[in-house]
Design brief:
The chain folds into 2 domains: 299 residues, Aminopeptidase (3-Layer(aba) Sandwich), CATH 3.40.630.10; 155 residues, 2-Layer Sandwich (Alpha-Beta Plaits), CATH 3.30.70.360. Helix content is 36%, strand content 22%. By secondary structure, it is of the alpha+beta class.
Length: 467
């Protein structure tokens, strides 16, 4: 693992020696490669995912002294694994390392390498899930096994949760546990995906996720009148109406929602002068974001400050020569903190105007925005450990624009953070571009740092919590 004058080794952070750290990094790389090659692709259908393959892999990897584990399969093939190192003090807080085992689908033609090859190329592991989030799931497993096999006994329970179905809402994974069998996964503090990413700016900063936007998926049904496709003049074509509905949704501009998290993110990214002022001004923030050259950065910042509307699935029509009388559009709406279902409906009325009466709106998923505080012993622990790798670094609380399984824990009263520790080769811009994107990959130095981070959390958190 490379070092420089601003980065200490992961072994220094966790207290392990360099040879042990290198061996654990090698285990993480090999486990990550195997998980990628298992192709646990979740396309949203109940019969997809096949997470049992990664669960069986993890079962074999974790078996040994000091680890209790159990697998659960609420839906055939959709397995999750819960492992535990039991604590010595029943009153001490518990910690869960949670990683999902499924990945999103791939368009292979957009990749320069096999998306399920798991190959190491120029110091990076390539493959679907390398960033989202098999890198963390594998490094958590390696750290957890190392702790157990070396006789580690924390004051509170340490849980490793390898969960199915994160990529399609959690109905066959964390959501199922939350509704049906929460006790096996219950924890006071949870660490999962989307954190520890270096931000730009004049001083060292790492993004740690403390909040996520809400989900308000809607299915729009647009009605028309059937007729012969050879006579389209003045036809009541549902597809033509749908095209205008979609155009209005894309053009709709809701009011921005600027929070303390947003202010901290703007400062951490190093924006200064007029640009900084504009990004913090509700009347100017949209145009300021629109002026940013990088599409990836602009899209991320827009999503952090606005409720967003993305029409992603459309279906309708029965035959080429028949004017369609119904078209459906599945709309991915992500809400800002505090926004309700009634406010989502108000947005749709405002966006569609006189066409709203032509549309039937069905709610297909509703989850409010969630967040966790930062005045906690876990935040203090992560801050200490990050500073040992990046001297002088400050953790920046951020909000992820997508959904994670953190929400299930937060709704149960737990503190959940998106954590990790990435190298400077994996910037926030790089990280977000590779999420669900082509040529997804992660550098081995980031795997080394993150593996050691979990060891550091386990060996230090309870001392911080007790102080």
């Amino acid at each position: 693992m490379s070092t420089n004058n601003t980065t200490t080794t992961g072994s220094q952070m966790s207290g392990s020696d360099d040879s042990t750290a290198d061996a654990l990094t090698g285990e993480t790389v090999e486990l990550l490669q195997a998980m990628i090659r298992n192709k646990c692709v979740n396309d949203g259908r109940p019969e997809s995912g096949d997470e049992f393959r990664n669960v069986e892999l993890l079962r074999g990897f974790l078996e040994g002294p000091g680890i209790e584990f159990q697998t659960y399969e609420p839906t055939p093939g959709r397995s999750s694994l819960v492992a535990r190192i039991e604590g010595t003090d029943p009153d001490a807080p518990s910690v869960c390392l949670m990683g999902h085992t499924d990945v999103v689908p791939v368009s292979p033609e957009g990749w320069s390498e096999d998306p399920f090859g798991g190959e190491v190329i120029d110091g990076e592991v390539w493959g679907r899930g390398a960033i989202d989030m098999l890198n963390l799931t594998s490094s958590m497993a390696v750290a957890f096994r190392h702790l157990a096999h070396t006789g580690f006994r924390p004051p509170g329970d340490l849980i490793y949760f390898a969960v199915a179905d994160e990529e399609a809402g959690g109905a066959h994974g964390a959501g199922w546990f939350a509704e049906n069998d929460y006790d096996p996964i219950a924890a006071d503090f949870v660490l999962t995906e989307s954190g520890g990413i270096p931000l730009g700016g004049p001083e060292p900063r790492l993004a740690m996720t403390v909040a996520e936007k809400g989900i308000a998926w809607r299915r729009l049904k647009i009605k028309g009148t059937p007729g012969h496709g050879s006579r389209p003049f003045r036809a009541d074509n549902a597809l033509v109406t749908t095209a205008e509905v979609v155009r209005r949704l894309i053009d709709y501009r809701p009011s921005p929602h600027l929070t303390e998290i947003w202010t901290g993110q703007v400062e951490a990214l190093g924006y200064e002068g007029e640009m900084r002022d504009a990004l913090l001004d509700p009347a100017k923030v949209f145009d300021a974001i629109d002026s940013i050259e990088s599409t990836n950065t602009a899209a991320r910042l827009h999503a952090c400050t606005h409720t967003t509307f993305s029409p992603n699935v459309i279906s309708g029509g029965v035959k080429t020569n028949t004017i369609p009388d119904e078209v459906t559009v599945d709309l991915d709406i992500r809400t800002v903190p505090g926004e309700t279902g009634a406010e989502v409906d108000a947005h749709l009325r405002a966006a569609l105007g006189d066409l709203y009466s032509r549309v039937e709106v069905e709610s297909i998923h509703d989850t409010p925005s969630t967040s966790s505080p930062v005045d906690t012993p876990m935040w203090a622990t992560l801050s200490e450990l990050a500073a040992e790798t990046y001297p002088g670094v400050r953790l920046v609380p951020t909000m992820t624009t997508g959904g994670t399984d953190s929400r299930f824990y937060r709704n149960k009263g737990a503190v959940a953070y998106g954590a990790g520790l990435f190298s400077k080769n994996c910037t926030y811009e790089t990280f977000t571009a590779r999420f669900h994107g082509n040529n997804e990959r992660v550098d081995i130095e980031s795997l080394a740092l993150t593996t050691q981070l979990w060891l550091g959390v386990a060996t230090r958190f309870w001392d911080v919590a007790a102080s």
